[in-house]
Amino acid sequence: MSKPVHITDSTFDAEVLKSDIPVLTDFWAEWCGPCKVIAPILDQIAVEYDGRIKITKMDVDQNNQTAMQLGVQSIPTLILFKNGQAVERLVGSMPKDRLLSRILPHLPSASE
């Protein structure tokens, strides 16, 4: 069963940019209320789309270098990376169906 992977500034390149499958990175912080709202949704997506997407989480209080380089100014910010490139950016908490409508077009089909 897949679950979100906690990453750091030092593991971002290997875990996200060099991944063989699309990666949705959640930039969050412990004190962020909307981050706590979206976390269980990301947990569900990690399980339901296991093998088609990787979910990673980066605590911006502990790892601000990557967030600054990517221009993350508010949290939660979710950035979808495909082949090492940012292809989608979502800011704020949102319902699961809206989140999926933005990321599913970038995922390989279940048969691939």
Highlighted features:
112 residues, alpha/beta, Glutaredoxin, five-stranded mixed sheet, 4 helices, 32% helix, globular
Describe this structure in words.
The chain has a five-stranded mixed β-sheet. The chain is globular. The protein contains four helices and five strands, in the order E-H-E-H-E-H-E-E-H. The protein has 112 residues and is α/β, with parallel strands linked by helices. The model has no long low-confidence stretch (mean pLDDT 95). The chain has one domain: 3-Layer(aba) Sandwich (Glutaredoxin). The longest helix has 16 residues. Strand 4 and strand 5 form a beta hairpin. Helices cover 32% and strands 25% of the residues.
- What number of structural domains do the residues give? 1
Average pLDDT score:
95
- Describe the largest sheet: 5 strands, mixed
What is the rounded Rg? 13 Å
Largest sheet, spatial ordering of strands = 1-3-2-4-5
Beta-strand proportion: 25-35%
Reading the helices and strands in chain order gives EHEHEHEEH
The CATH class, by name, is Alpha Beta
Helix content: 25-40%
Task: Provide the CATH topology.
Answer: Glutaredoxin
- Assign the structural class, choosing from mainly alpha, mainly beta, alpha/beta, alpha+beta, or little secondary structure: alpha/beta
